Amino acid sequence: MNAIDAATTPPGKGGRYRWRVCALLLAATTLNYIDRQVLGVLAPFLQNQIGWNEIEYGYIVTAFQCAYAIGLLCAGAIIDRFGTRIGYALSIGIWSLAAMSHTLAASVLGFALARFALGLGEAGNFPAAIKTVAEWFPRRERALATGIFNSGSNIGAIVAPMVVPVIAVAWGWQAAFLFTGVLSATWLATWLLTYRTPERQPKLSPAELAYIQSDPAEPITRVPWATILHHRQAWAFIVGKFMTDPIWWFLLFWLPKFLHSTYGLSLLELGLPLIAIYVTADVGSIAGGWLAGYLIRRGWSANRARKGAMLACALCVVPIVFAANASHMWVAVALIGLATAGHQGWSANLFTLASDLFPRRAVASVVGIGGFAGAVGGMMIATFAGFLLQATGSYVPLFIMAGSAYLLALLAVHALAPRLQPAALGTNS
């Protein structure tokens, strides 16, 4: 039995302050996705106003993905070096300014530059959040905490189509970008004023601190990337991200365009189906994290429980292959909603693999490298989607790719980490 399976609940949890920290992470992830989703919601309208075609829109999305990939490659190491408080602040400060800079864009190049800056800043969110969870939660609660903060990606995707069209129609599309940037800047001020690590947080009770630190002690020395990449466990996470993140990126940036072109929805009419899809995704995010913990409490090994939950999530994505030819919009919405729920449940468990398989000092770097791989995959699918849609106008091949990606990714994860044995980095690595 490994350390994950051997963990037992101490007599008392001593308080709930750690869940306030989780709420901060949830708010940050929500704002992260509101900021990046504004362009997707406005894309059908801006495509006509600015005059870009499908290929040029693909390039704009690719600019974001390219910067996101570069940022993720650097963000993990920066956060591991300077800590979550400063690292998170740098990230959200950059993306707040970048979100507001969209108001100055008036061409394909202008939007591409603004998206590039946004991608650089937003890249720090998930490495910082995962590392914060590793600092504030014992192993037995990390999947649930990750599922909760990761649900912010769906909340953001829900809020964006609720408020962005209304703001854009009332005050112009520039106001939508400005509004979301100001919200992110407000979170930054709150974070700097309130956040401390558990050891330095005066509002945390000694009992809760002891509960948070109830897992076996870990060395605090940093781990070089070369050491991380030497382990198959890292490649399990990297390959999983590379194969499945692009599906989420595709849906995030092309779903409004798909609904607009296929069912003729106007800017204001996009709100309800997008909200329905991402509400379903939000349920999937929390349920996916809960399911693995439930199975562990029922006596399943961590390996069997985590992969069982990931299999259930992967199967939920498969029916999306029928969405492109659905006869009714709400049938397509139901199929896509189920798939987004599956992705988010999958994502919660895949993120948790990083903290299951690696010590805290390496978590942000592992997540950053994996996120880089996912963003590279996102760059590839963005460019491919732009050329495919410009040439054929058909979403069928893209939805077939989406439906098959997760089962193939699970096979790869299992092949690389068949027992989910934590990586033996050693104290001097």
From TrEMBL:
Stated family: Belongs to the major facilitator superfamily. Phthalate permease family.
Cellular location(s): Cell inner membrane
Domain Major facilitator superfamily (MFS) profile: 21-421
The species this protein was found in: Rhodanobacter fulvus Jip2
GO MF terms held by the record: hexuronate transmembrane transporter activity
Primary location recorded for the protein, binned into one broad class: membrane
Reactions mediated catalytically: aldehydo-D-galacturonate(out) + H(+)(out) = aldehydo-D-galacturonate(in) + H(+)(in)
Protein name from the UniProt record: Anion:cation symporter family protein
CC terms in the record's Gene Ontology section: plasma membrane
